[in-house]
């Protein structure tokens, strides 16, 4: 027989209250981590192939460039204008960074930082030129991929060395005759950056002034740091039964360069 003082029901209510308290604490910790430290992103397009693949999941450090309005979750719904950054540190040439598309200040984009404020950028016959000097480009083994019809193909692949010594890999699906392989001369405005994808013939980036253009420093969200999960294109991550065959195990926990 239960005690008449109702201690059993009181204990149950206390247990529920403690569970809610722990859940709220966990939620607050997750919110702080996501806002101030690391935010997960997944790669939905191939603009950074071969560095990042469709189906890669990565952590982006929020503290690398300091904090702006766009560091906050759901920043597009915050009323009023907020400008500037707290504890600001400018992106370095060669960083792979997530930013809010200047066109709508809401869509997340990820590209490589190529041009700094004041730089002059131009692509001439497929060769990236920075401040009037061609960037060193070394041909390496072709990259194996698929054509638009799903057939296996190989495309030219290069090691590109930026002026500050950052070395990364780029591919040219259309050789040096792609639409963006001959561009105008761009001059990066103060407080802005010039972003490009490593898949040079399949990337909507700062070369396209109408759709991306120069990216304001305020729009930067963070720097890509590490791939924590990767699964073949077209396979949803939640299909755990497909993981043994579809997860790209060799990409897990790779740092991003």
Q: Short description, anyone?
A:
The protein is of the alpha+beta class.
Please provide a written account of the structure.
This protein is of the alpha+beta class and 257 residues long. Helix content is 14%, strand content 32%. It has two helices and 15 strands. The chain has helices at residues 7-37, 243-246; strands spanning 38-42, 56-61, 96-100, 108-115, 120-124, 127-130, 133-134, 136-146, 152-161, 167-171, 186-187, 192-196, 215-216, 220-230, 254-255. Strands 1, 2, 3, 4, 12, 13, 14 and 15 form an eight-stranded antiparallel beta sheet that branches. Strands 7-6-5-11 form a four-stranded antiparallel beta sheet, with no helix packed on it. It has a three-stranded antiparallel beta sheet with strand order 8-9-10, with no helix packed on it. Strand 6 and strand 7 (133-134) form a beta hairpin. The termini are far apart. The mean pLDDT is 88.
List the helices and strands and how they pair.
Layout lengths: L6 H31 E5 L13 E6 L34 E5 L7 E8 L4 E5 L2 E4 L2 E2 L1 E11 L5 E10 L5 E5 L14 E2 L4 E5 L18 E2 L3 E11 L12 H4 L7 E2 L2
Antiparallel strand pairs: 1-2, 2-14, 3-4, 3-14, 4-12, 5-6, 5-11, 6-7, 8-9, 9-10, 12-13, 14-15
Major beta-sheet overview = 8 strands, antiparallel
Q: How many beta-strand elements?
A: 15
Structural class: alpha+beta
Calculate the terminal CA-CA distance, rounded to whole Å.
67 Å
What's the number of helices?
Answer: 2
**Helix content percent band:** 10-25%
Whole-number mean pLDDT:
88
């Amino acid at each position: 027989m239960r005690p008449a003082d109702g201690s059993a029901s009181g204990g149950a209510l206390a247990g529920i209250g403690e569970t809610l308290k722990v859940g709220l604490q966990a939620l607050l910790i997750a919110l702080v981590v996501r806002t101030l430290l690391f935010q997960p992103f997944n790669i939905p397009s191939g603009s950074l192939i071969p560095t990042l693949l469709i189906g890669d999941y990565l952590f982006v450090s929020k503290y690398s460039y300091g904090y702006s309005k766009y560091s906050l979750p759901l920043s597009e719904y915050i009323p009023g204008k907020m400008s500037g950054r707290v504890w600001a540190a400018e992106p370095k040439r060669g960083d792979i960074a997530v930013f809010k598309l200047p066109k709508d200040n809401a869509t997340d984009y990820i590209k490589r930082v190529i041009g700094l404020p004041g730089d002059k950028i131009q692509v001439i016959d497929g060769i990236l030129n920075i401040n009037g000097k061609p960037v060193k480009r070394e041909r390496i083994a072709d990259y194996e991929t698929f054509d638009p019809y799903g057939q296996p193909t190989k495309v030219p692949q290069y090691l590109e060395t930026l002026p500050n010594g950052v070395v990364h890999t780029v591919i040219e699906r259309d050789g040096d005759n792609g639409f963006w392989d001959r561009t105008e001369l761009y001059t990066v405005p103060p407080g802005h950056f010039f972003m490009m994808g490593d898949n040079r013939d399949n990337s909507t980036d700062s070369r396209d002034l109408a759709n991306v253009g120069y990216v304001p420093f305020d729009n930067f969200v963070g720097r890509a740091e590490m791939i924590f999960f990767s699964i073949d294109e077209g396979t949803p991550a939640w299909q755990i039964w497909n993981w043994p065959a579809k997860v790209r195990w060799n990409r897990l926990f790779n740092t991003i360069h």
